[in-house]
Write a structure and sequence with these properties.
Blueprint (H helix, E strand, L loop, with lengths): L1 H8 L2 H7 L5 H12 L4 H13 L7 H18 L9 H19 L6 H8 L7 H45 L17 H4 L10 H7 L1
Helix pairs in contact: 4-5
Length: 210
């Protein structure tokens, strides 16, 4: 039964090379010897990725998620030995310490101030706590940038309104004789006379009567 299962799930060429072996165990051993790869190449690759990983254009959450994925995969290849003594806690604490330092080292330079403050703490917080602190800093900066942007937009809107109001007044013709807007001296009725039948209002009416 197991032999048939193995022959069914391998390619035809591989099946032909193992079909005459005496048992399923012999088949499995043959396949294992031929195709098994050690963990060292992948462990090397993970450590290389971790050594080169920085935040870059990612947000803090994306950068941390990538780090944590590689850490978890590395733990699968290199698990801690089972132990009930106090040494296990020390190993876990050292691992957390390394995680914190690696996470902080890969952050962008804009986090230099908060990074220095965290490194000065003794003992260092857990990696999850440090991640929470950095995310809070990132969110605070986003809110500050948004408020500044809104203020700039409001200021620009006010200045544009004032400019348009001033520009509207400035564009109107000005009479140097009577001091009124809307016409020039070349078309001023007080200089050239009013049109027949025109009845001026207000002070101009009084001035004409006078």
């Amino acid at each position: 039964m197991v032999i048939l299962w193995i022959l069914h799930y391998v390619s035809k060429d591989i099946a032909e090379s193992i079909m005459y072996l005496d048992s399923a165990f012999d088949m499995w051993s043959d396949l294992y010897d031929r195709f098994h790869q050690g963990n060292n190449p992948r462990v090397f690759q993970i450590k290389q990725l971790l050594g080169n990983l920085v935040q870059g254009s990612n947000d803090v959450s994306g950068y941390f998620t990538r780090l944590k994925t590689l850490w978890e995969e590395l733990k699968d290849f290199r698990p801690f030995p089972m132990c009930s003594c106090g040494a296990m806690k020390q190993l876990i604490d050292l691992q957390q310490h390394d995680y914190v330092l690696q996470f902080l080292m890969g952050l962008n330079k804009s986090f230099s101030r908060v990074r220095a403050q965290i490194i000065m703490l003794d003992p260092l917080p857990s990696i999850n706590k440090v991640f929470s602190l950095i995310v809070q800093e990132e969110r605070q900066r986003s809110l500050s940038s948004l408020n500044l942007f809104q203020l700039n937009v409001a200021a620009f809107g006010a200045s544009s309104s004032n400019y348009n109001s001033y520009k509207g007044k400035k564009d109107k013709p000005y009479c140097t004789h009577c001091g009124m807007l809307g016409h020039t001296i070349e078309k001023c009725y007080k200089v050239h006379g009013y049109l027949p039948g025109y009845k001026p209002k207000g002070k101009f009416s009084n001035s004409m009567k006078g």
